Amino acid sequence: MRESGILMPVSSLPGPYGIGCFGKAAFQFVDFLSAAGQTIWQLLPLSPTGYGDSPYQSCSAFAGNPYFVDLEALEKEGLLTAADLKAESWGKDPLEVDYGTLYVSRFAVLRKAYAAWRSQCAGLHGCAYYYPDDYYAFTLANEDWLEDYALYMALKVANKMKNWVEWDAPYRRRDKAVLAAFAAANEEEIGFWKFVQYKFSAQWQAVKTYANKKGVQILGDIPIYVSADSVDAWVGGKLFELDADGRFARVAGCPPDYFSADGQLWGNPLYDWAYHKKTGYAWWIQRVRHALGIYDLLRIDHFRGFDTYWAIPAGESTARNGRWEQGPRMELFRALHNALGSLPIVAEDLGEMFDSVRELLAESGFPGMKVLQFAFTGEDSVDLPHNYPRNCVAYPGTHDNNTLAGWFGGELTAAQRRQATDYFALTGREGTVRGLLRGVLASAAALAIIPLADWLEEPAASRMNTPGKARDNWQWRADAKKLTPALAGEIRELSERYFRTAR
Fold first, then answer.
1. Which parts of 122-230 fold into alpha helices (H)?
2. What is the DSSP letter of 301?
3. Measured between alpha carbons, how far is 492 from 486 in angstroms, rounded to an integer?
C-alpha cells in the first residue's frame, strides 16, 4: 500500500496562547488530514524543549512538553478562568512562538490550574487529598520515570533552573537521605510536575484516539541521545561514558557535512554501550516501549549512530576533532524485537553514510529516508526520485531543511536550478513547488511525507530549524486561514493521482 502524510509539529498548530497545543486546532488538523486523504501525521518530539528551544535537547526522554497542554480544556474543567488566560502575555506574533514569553506565562497559568485542582481534590477537612482514579492509574503506569522526573524538576526550580552538574554535591550525587528530605519538604512542587504530565497524557491520548478513528496514524520522533541537562543524565550514571570524576568524558555530534563546515557539536552524553549490553538493553526497551505507547509509528533520529557514532572529547569548541566509534548495531534491535515484537520504526539514515550503515539498515528491514533537497548534484544521486526504493520514506525536506520555496530560490546554484527544472519538467503554470511535490509523491517510495510549510509554499523565513544555529529556531506557526477545504482537496487529488489514498 502506498501512503502519504504531512509533517506538522504540534508547536506549529494555529490557535491562541502562544504555541500549538492539544486543543481544538489539533482536532481540526486531524480533520484536515482526513479530508486531504492523508493517513500519517508526522510530529517532532513531544518532549519538553531544552537548549535553543529544541525538542531534541530535552530535560527528559519520557516526559511531555507542558506547553502542549490545552489551557482552554483546563478552563472548561474549572481549573482556570478566562481572566487567568487574559492576564498573561502570549507573544506579539500569532505566527511565531515566543519561547521567552511562554516560559513565564504558560507556567504561571499551569500553576494556577494545579492549585485549583488540588483544591478540588482536597478532603472535607483539608487534611487529605482524594485524587481521581485516572490520576492514580497514570502515576502507577509511569512511575519508572515520573518519580525521578518530578523530583528533578523540583530540584531544578529550587536551584534556579541551573544544570544539575552545578547543584550542591549531595543533590548532584543523588544522596538518598538528602533527596528524601527534599521530597518531603517539596511535596506540592513535585506534585505540580506530576499533574502537568497527567494532563499532557490525557489530552494527547484524546487527540491520538480521534486521529486513529479518522484513519490517521501518528508518526512520532525520538532523538537517539538524551540532553546533558536532563533527568536521564542525572539518574543514568553508568548508562553513559564518564571520566574519573564522574563527568561526561565525550559528547555527541556529527562531523563536517552538508549542513555545517565545523560539523555539529550537540554536547549530548554518549552511551556506554558495553554497559547497556550487560543490562540486556533494558533502558532502551523501556524508552521504545514508552514511545510506542504514545505513537503508532516511530522515527528514530540519527539512526546511523547505532552503527558508528561521532565521539568528541568533552570541552571541544567544534565537532572537528571527534572520531568514529562502534555502536551496538543489530544487537540492540534484536533485543528490542524480542521484548516488544514487531518494531514500526522509520530510520533517519541521513548524514555521512558508510557501507556498514547501509548494511545495518538493510538487515533491520526499517525504511530509511530520502530527501529531495539533497538530490541535485549533477550526478545520478540516490536522492533523485527515480532511484528511491519502495521501502523508504520520501521527503522534499525535513525540519532541518529550508522550505522548498526558500531552497529553490535561495540555495541552488544556477546549474542545480536548471537540473531540477529539467528533471521535473517544471512549468510556470503548475508552479515550482507544486512540481517538486509532484515528483516526491510520484516516486516509488511506499510513504511520502510533505511538511505542511511546503504545501503552503512558505518562504525561507518559515524554516523550522537551521542546524548549527543556536537561536531563532522552532518558531514557525501555521496560519489557520490557509488550511482551507480547497487546499485539502488539492492535496487529496495529487495524492490520489499517485495511488497514495484509499479509493
1. 133-141, 143-158, 169-172, 176-185, 187-213
2. T
3. 10
Which three three-digit cell numbers place residue 25? 486546532
Q: Does the annotation mark 301 as catalytic?
A: yes
Residue 193: predicted pLDDT: 98
Burial 193-226 (b: 16+ CB within 10 A, else e): bbbbbbbbbbbbeebbeebeeeebbbbbbbbbbb
- Chain-wide mean pLDDT for the chain? 95
Separation of alpha carbons 305 and 288, rounded Å? 16
Phi then psi for residue 126, to 5 deg, are: 70, 15
Q: Which pLDDT value is given to residue 232?
A: 96
Which of 301, 307, 383, 458 is catalytic? The answer is 301
Rg of the chain taking only CA atoms, in angstroms: 23
219 SS3 class: strand
| Catalytic residue flag (residue 187) | no
Residue 237 CA, distance from chain mean position: 24
- Among residues 70, 348, 349, 383, the one annotated as catalytic is 348
Given this model, what pLDDT does residue 243 score?
Answer: 80
Residue 123's pLDDT is 65
The three three-digit cell numbers of residue 466, written as one number:
537551521
Whether 407 has a pLDDT exceeding 80, the answer reads yes
Which pLDDT does position 330 carry in this prediction?
Answer: 98
Angle, alpha carbons 225-226-229 (nearest 5°): 145
Give how far Cα 178 sits from Cα of 146, 182, 266, Å: 19, 6, 32
Q: CA–CA separation, 374 vs 371, rounded Å?
A: 6
Find the helix packing angle between 485-497 and 432-442, rounded to 10°. Answer: 40
* Helical ranges in 223-354 per DSSP H: 231-236, 273-278, 282-294, 330-340
Mark 469-487 as b/e (b = at least 16 C-beta within 10 Å): eeeebbbbbbeeeebeeeb
Report pLDDT digits (tens) over 34-92: 999 999 999 999 999 998 999 999 999 999 999 999 999 999 999 999 999 999 999 99
387-406 tens-digit pLDDT: 999 999 999 999 999 999 99
DSSP helix/strand/coil, 349: coil
Place of cell 512538553: 65
Give the Cα separation of 303 and 296 in Å (integer): 19
Catalytic residue from among 148, 400, 454, 458: 400
Enter the DSSP assignment of 242.
B
Contact between 63 and 57 under an 8 Å Cβ cutoff? The reply is: no
| Tens digits of residue pLDDT in 182-199 | 999 999 999 999 999 999
How many alpha carbons lie under 13 Å from residue 44 in its C-beta half-sphere?
28
Q: What is the pLDDT of residue 470?
A: 81
Residue 108 has pLDDT above 90, yes or no: yes
CA distance 276 to 270: 12
Set of cell numbers at residue 500: 497514495
User: Is residue 124's pLDDT more than 60?
Assistant: no
Phi, psi (rounded to 5 degrees) for 484: -95, 160
